[in-house]
Amino acid sequence: MFYRVAEIVKRLNLDLEFISSGDCIDYSPVTGEKIASFPLSDAAHIRIMIERSKHAFEEWRRVEPNERSALVRLFGEELRDKKEELAELIVIETGKVYSTALKEVERSIEICDMVADMQYRMSGFSVPTQGKHLVVSEVWQPLGPVVVVTSFNFPLRVWVLNALLALVCGDSVIWRPSRKATLTAFAANSLLRRAKARSSSNCPEYLSQVVICNHENSVVMAESFDIPLLCATGSPVMARNLQSKVGQRLGRSILSVGGNNAAIVTPSADFDSAVNHILQSAIADAGQRCTSLHRLFCHSSIYDEFVGRLKSAFNTVYVNSPFERQSRLGPLIDKEAYDIMRTQLERAKAEGGIISGGNRMDIGLYKDAYYVQPAVVEMPEQTETVKTELLAPVLYVMRYDDLDEAVSQINAFSQTLLAGIFSNDLKETGRFCSSDGVQSDAAIVNAGMVGYDMAAMFTTGRDNRGNVTDVWRPFMQSKTCLTNYNF
Question: pTM for the full model?
Answer without folding.
Answer: 0.90
